[in-house]
Every structure is written in C-alpha cells, then in structure tokens.
Amino acid sequence: MERAILKTLNLARAARRAAVTISDLTGGVRVHVEGDDCPEPWRLAVTSALQSGRAGIVETEQGAFFLNAYLPPPRILVIGAVHLSQALARMAPVAGFDMTIIDPRTAFATPERFADVELIAEWPEDALKERPFDRFTALVAVTHDPKIDDGPIRAALAAGCFYVGALGSRKTHATRAERLRQAGVSDAEIARIRAPIGLDIGAASPAEIAVAILAEIIEALRRRDTAQSRGAIV
Amino acid sequence: MLEAANVLDPLDIAEAWLKEGRQVAIATVIETWGSAPRPVGSHLVIDDNGNFQGSVSGGCVEGAVITEASDVIASGAAKILDFGVADETAWRVGLSCGGRIRVLVERVDG
Fold it and tell me: Contact A129/A152 with Cβ under 8 angstroms?
C-alpha cells in the first residue's frame, strides 16, 4: 500500500466520509471515497460495499481483489425531548446508532426522562455548533414547533444528512414545505424530508412510531445514493 | 493528529508511526471460514521493531503475523497467510475456536 493511499483513507475516516479500498492482494491498493466518481468495472462492488459496510473478496476477470469498507458510525440527532424520543433512545443503541437529543424546552429535556442518552437542553443552533451535521447523521425533528424544528431541518438538508425526518401530518408538512421554500430551500431538498415521519406500518403508540422511524432511518442508510457528490475531502 | 478517541485505531497509528520514520506493515483479515474471532477487514499494524497495535484474531495468531511482517517490511513483497485447524501441520499456531482466517500482510511504501 502506498502511504498516500493510507493518508487519503485516514482523512476520509476523520471527516466521517465512507471509503472503500480495493487491494490486488499483492500490495497494490486504491481507495475510493463516497461521493467521488467510481470508474467501471468497480461501480457495483464499491457501491455495495459502501452501503453494506461489508468487506470481502471480489472475483473479476483480472483475478481476485479484496474490498475493505470503512463506514463512519451512524448517529441519530433528535430535535425534541418528547415521548417518542424516550422510546427511540432505548432502541437506537440496539440497532447500532449513537443518539443525541436536543430540546431547548427544559420542562421536556430533563435527566429523569432521559437517563441513558446524551441530552442537550439548548437551542439547536447553539448545540449544533459543537456537533455539526454530516452525511452519516440522521435528523429526527419531532417538536412540532417551527421555531425549534425548521433551523436544524435546513442545516441537515444542506449538510447532506442521509436521513431528514420531520413529525407532522401531510397538512402540517405542506405548511412547513412552504415556509422552507420561502426561506430559499429548493424543491429537491424539500422532497428529501421524510414526512409524515416513519415507515407506514400503522404505528399508533410512541414506541411503535419510534420503530417506524428507526426502520426508515435504516432503509435510508442502506439504500443511500453513494454516488452523490459532496466535494473533495482534502 | 491523533484524536483521543482514535488512539487505538490501527490505521491512524500506522500513519503516526510512518511520520516518526518507522517502517510499517499492515495485516488485514481478508477471508474467514467458520467461527473467526475478528471480522473480515480487521487490521493489525506492525513496525520494524515488532511493535504492534490492533488485532486479526483474539491474540491466537498475532505472534506469527508479526514474525511474517518483519519479512514483508524487509522485502516489500506482500504475503497472504492462512491460519486455522486445517493448517495446523503447516503452522505452529492455530485458532482454538476452530475457524480459519486468511490474512494479507503488506508494507506501506512511500
């Protein structure tokens, strides 16, 4: 392996960008960072590795190659210390996600209600300065309050988060979409918002809604468009 | 620029060692069969003095990998090593868990 390849790989990992290395098993290694153009014949195998995170041998006409996948640990950022967030906070770690909850309403954001999850009782704009969004962050905005939800939704869309979900009925979301449009968010970006939030499994209780949201997040992670360009890492 | 959370990350360590002027080999699990202690893609890094970080097994075969790594560092030629119960006659070390693993050892050049 060339030292420059190792450096590129480590920079990608430090920047929480997914990367795949392609080894010819004799010391020749190439690195492909998610979002960069992937040449044929590697596109399919690299896309699969980026989505699944699985490493393995790939047989080609040129012989066997080893593809290793380096995915940042995904995290879920929840805006709103509400009932369904309590349920989601218990499920997210089981599914392998780090989770943080932000809510400036101190009546909601109490340690008693959220014992085992990182909880920040601040305005999202302030809390997000410490922990900016990235592609491997899922945003779940569930306060129902535009003053609290809209800012992080815009920031998450701009950062290319793999999942942006917002609580609210179709009517509420139509109103939200119009507000975002007025604020200069493009229709394509607004279309990325998952609303009503969660897969349609008929969820009724807060815990069931949390399951629907978590399933939708997993689907978004595993089926994300790995070709979407986000610029160079260096 | 090692961050606190990454002090035990083999690939970050490999780069830090190179900056110190050490020669470095990276060992990677490239295939597993049966019950293997570390998944495919796991790394062990070794320097030219036999210092190492990371793992390719639960400590069962690291000694042999480190020995082979010194050859790889000296010659620059990558090696593929097989470990497991099926290869006990060929290798003095094996995996007590009964699995088999294949490990690629390569030098970092440049």
Answer: no
**pTM value surpassing 0.80:** no
Structure tokens given for B26:
């990276």
Query: For residue B40, which residues of chain A lie inside 8 Å, CB to CB?
Result: 54-56, 68
What does the alpha-carbon distance between residue A96 and residue A98 come to, in Å, rounded to a whole number?
Answer: 7
Evaluate whether ipTM surpasses 0.95. Answer: no
Q: Do B28 and A2 touch (CB under 8 A)?
A: no
Length of chain A: 234
Q: What would the two tokens of residue A12 be?
A: 């990608």
Q: Chain B neighbours among A 71-100 (CB < 8 Å)? A: none
Residues in CB range of A151: below 8 A, 6 or more apart: A124, A125
Interface membership of A2 toward B (CB under 8 Å): yes
Give DSSP secondary structure letters for A120-162: E-S-HHHHHHHS---TTEEEEE-S--HHHHHHHHHHHHHHT-S
Between chains, do A54 and B40 touch, taking CB under 8 Å as contact? yes
Architecture of domain A75-222: 3-Layer(aba) Sandwich (3.40)
- For helices A3-14 and B10-19, the axis angle rounded to 10 degrees is 130
Give per-residue pLDDT as tens, A114-153. 998 999 999 999 999 988 898 899 999 999 999 999 999 9
DSSP β-bridge partners for residue A70: A19
Cβ of residue B11 closer than 8 Å to a chain A Cβ:
yes
Q: Which of A56, A79, A59 is nearest to A69 (CA)?
A: A56
Give the residue range(s) of CATH 3.40.50.720 domains in chain A. 75-222
Q: How far apart are the first and last CA of chain B?
A: 20
